[in-house]
Amino acid sequence: MADMVDNHNDDEGPDLGRTYHSGPVIMRGPMIPEADANAGLLSSGGDTDWLHMDPWRVLRIQAEFVDGFGALAELGPAAAIFGSARIGREDPNYAAARKMGGDLAKAGMAVITGGGPGIMEAANKGAAEVGGKSVGLGIELPMEQGLNRWVNLGITFRYFFVRKMMFMKYSSGIIVCPGGFGTLDEMFEVLTLVQTHKAPSMPIVLFDRVYWQGLFDWMSDTVQQRGMISELDPDLVIRTDDPDEAVEVILRHRD
Questions:
Q1: pLDDT for the residue numbered 57
Q2: pLDDT beyond 90 at 53
Q3: Which of 58, 111, 179, 219 is a good FRET partner for 3, with 20 to 30 A between their CA atoms?
């Protein structure tokens, strides 16, 4: 609690007056605030700009971590399936994601997606249809319409980095279906953490070989040859067109 004490200084130099203690911090002279923390806490009116300042954001971020850890801590073995929200239900990749979600759930693994439409909906649907754990980790975005109806355990996050932490912490394998910037962001996050040993090694399956071919040609022919990255572990980064193979790779490495 803050308090006031007299400051008697017999040494040479200016007398800065009394000393104000606020926890471990001391303030003197013009640095002393006009109102102490306790008075501010009990005040019912005043400026509300503090709601939008970084210290308050830290508490919201902390609360998101607590909510995520609390909801997912007892989830058990799980795999994440990433992919575009724009893929329609008639797309072959929708059917493949639905099958992969169902097969993983039948094998006793929870299926984690971003909770949206498209590939995410398909994977959640596959898991839910067989009575499995169908998890959706949503994100607040102006164009999003909330979690799809096939999610039976869902959380909506405000901060992307908190959401990414939940994907990484609770997934022991990743299947990446065709997608755009969001999917690429998630994929490279996983690759970065695994390659730098900041996260445990896990299988990363890229589904639809043709879709990923150009990107990986560039990574191996340009990025790797110029020494920007190390060779990707062929046992952990696998491209396939076969849903059964994708699931088999994940199950082979599960906890």
A1: 83
A2: no
A3: 58
Predicted pLDDT of residue 16: 66
pLDDT beyond 80 at 54: no
Q: What is the pLDDT of residues 74-108, one digit of tens each?
A: 999 999 999 999 999 999 999 999 999 999 999 99
- CA neighbours within 13 Å on the CB side: how many for 137? 29
Sign of CA dihedral 207, 208, 212, 216: positive
- Angstrom distance (rounded) from CA 178 to CA 207: 7
d(CA 127, CA 105): 5
pLDDT at residue 134 in the model: 95
As a whole number, the mean pLDDT across the chain is 86
Pick from 73, 96, 1, 7: nearest CA to 40 = 1
Q: What span, in angstroms and rounded, lies between the C-alpha atoms of 153 and 66?
A: 16
C-alpha to C-alpha distance for 72 and 150, rounded to whole angstroms? 17
Amino acid at 110: A
HEC letters along the chain: CCEEECCCCCCCCCCCCCEEEECCEEEEHHHCCCCCHHHHHHCCCCCCHHHHCHHHHHHHHHHHHHHHHHHHCCCCCEEEEECCCCCCCCCHHHHHHHHHHHHHHHCCCEEEECCCCCHHHHHHHHHHHCCCCEEEEEECCCCCCCCCCCCCEEEEECCHHHHHHHHHHHCCCEEECCCCHHHHHHHHHHHHHHHCCCCCCCCEEEECHHHHHHHHHHHHHHHHCCCCCCCCCCCCEEEECCHHHHHHHHHHCCC
